[in-house]
């Protein structure tokens, strides 16, 4: 992809600090060097962290939109294992991978975020999608087509965190809209599994409470983070203080039209989505 022409202009050019992060031209000079740095970070560490990715006015806009929408969101309290699926009954009773964790958050699914919001416009930016593809070094990359999973806003209230889990797709992009007063740090075990295998020793050690091989870092509001969430076990430490930690999660996939299994959607989003899916099935069967 060459430099973006004026005719191809989209919202990314108004929302992103392009002087610092020249994602609109990744072929030339500073853009090419920046892309190479991001690619190296993903390869070497499993993540790429871009502080102050948003312009301040864009950050204020998206944070205000999220805070306005969150009172309409559900408070989810979901019990799930690290794979966001059912427990494998063949595992021994004392196997750490049989553990289920309580995830408690205020969460907006994609279908609850209006199309006119800056956040959804940013997610649908072709420039941003192309940048994510190039950083991940994929031949092709698409925004997730799932009506619930594609774009989420998650607020972790003081006293809560995000339990250990793998994401349902390889490439996960998060945008921190509001940082916690204290805590709320992103913690993960880089490249703990592949499509064929899992580093069970490292995973079991982490689930037993040994954090010595995990990576943890703090981020400020406006930070964009790209990481291999489908291949790196990860979570968020307990939020402290008086304000929630608010994050947008953008999901991508190498295949077009990707949707998530109903069982996983119900485990992630709870009763509202369960009722929607049940109603559709009843309508089809009726």
TrEMBL record:
<comment type="similarity">
    <text>Belongs to the iron/ascorbate-dependent oxidoreductase family.</text>
</comment>
<keyword id="KW-0479">Metal-binding</keyword>
<dbReference type="InterPro" id="IPR056470">
    <property type="entry name" value="BesD/HalB-like"/>
</dbReference>
<dbReference type="GO" id="GO:0046872">
    <property type="term" value="F:metal ion binding"/>
</dbReference>
<dbReference type="GO" id="GO:0016491">
    <property type="term" value="F:oxidoreductase activity"/>
</dbReference>
<dbReference type="InterPro" id="IPR005123">
    <property type="entry name" value="Oxoglu/Fe-dep_dioxygenase_dom"/>
</dbReference>
<keyword id="KW-0408">Iron</keyword>
<keyword id="KW-0560">Oxidoreductase</keyword>
<dbReference type="Pfam" id="PF23169">
    <property type="entry name" value="HalD"/>
</dbReference>
<feature type="domain" description="Fe2OG dioxygenase">
    <location>
        <begin position="146"/>
        <end position="256"/>
    </location>
</feature>
<protein>
    <recommendedName>
        <fullName>Fe2OG dioxygenase domain-containing protein</fullName>
    </recommendedName>
</protein>
């Amino acid at each position: 992809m060459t430099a973006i022409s004026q005719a191809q202009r989209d919202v990314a050019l108004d929302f992103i600090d392009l002087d610092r992060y020249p994602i609109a031209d990744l072929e030339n000079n500073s853009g090419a060097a920046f892309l190479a740095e991001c690619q190296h970070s993903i390869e070497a560490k499993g993540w790429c962290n871009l502080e102050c990715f948003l312009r301040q006015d864009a950050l204020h806009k998206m944070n205000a939109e999220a805070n306005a929408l969150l009172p309409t969101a559900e408070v989810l309290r979901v019990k799930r294992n690290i794979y966001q699926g059912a427990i494998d009954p063949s595992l021994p009773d004392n196997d750490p991978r049989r553990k289920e964790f309580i995830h408690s958050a205020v969460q907006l699914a994609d279908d609850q975020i209006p199309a006119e919001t800056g956040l959804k416009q940013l997610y649908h930016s072709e420039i941003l999608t192309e940048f994510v593809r190039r950083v991940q070094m994929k031949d092709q990359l698409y925004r997730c087509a799932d009506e619930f999973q594609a774009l989420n806003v998650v607020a972790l209230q003081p006293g809560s965190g995000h339990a250990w889990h793998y994401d349902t797709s390889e490439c996960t992009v998060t945008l921190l809209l509001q940082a916690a007063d204290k805590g709320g740090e992103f913690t993960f075990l880089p490249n703990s599994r592949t499509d064929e295998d899992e580093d069970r020793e490292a995973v079991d050690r982490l689930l037993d409470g040994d954090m010595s091989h995990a990576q943890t870092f703090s981020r400020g509001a406006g930070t964009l983070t790209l990481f291999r969430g489908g291949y790196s076990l990860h979570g968020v430490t307990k939020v402290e203080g008086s304000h929630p930690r608010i994050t947008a999660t953008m999901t991508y996939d190498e295949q077009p039209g990707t949707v998530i299994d109903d069982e996983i959607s119900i485990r992630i989003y709870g009763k509202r989505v369960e009722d929607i899916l049940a109603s559709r099935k009843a309508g089809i069967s009726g």
